[in-house]
Design brief:
Distance between the termini: 15 Å
Largest sheet: none
Pfam family, one: zf-C2HCIx2C
Shape: elongated
Structural class: mainly alpha
InterPro entries: DUF2602
Number of domains: 1
Number of helices: 3
Radius of gyration: 13 Å
Protein name: Zinc-finger domain-containing protein
Length: about 60
């Protein structure tokens, strides 16, 4: 995987799953933006995938 592919996959994943996420919208109302963000990081499977892709991107930057 190259850098552009990883960035594209991150963008596509966020657009497909996160933009219209009902859970995220509801949590923003209930807990505020930080609470919703925390849920996405800790509990959401899409968030886990995004973290993995982010780590792969960081590996690419550290190799340069």
């Amino acid at each position: 995987m190259n850098q552009q592919n990883i960035i594209s996959e991150i963008d596509e994943t966020m657009e497909k799953y996160c933009d219209d996420c009902f859970v995220k919208q509801q949590l923003r109302k209930d807990r505020g933006k930080p609470g919703a963000h925390q849920f996405c990081i800790e509990s959401c499977t899409v968030g886990e995938q995004l973290q993995f892709l982010g780590q792969e991107l960081l590996k690419m930057y550290s190799k340069e």
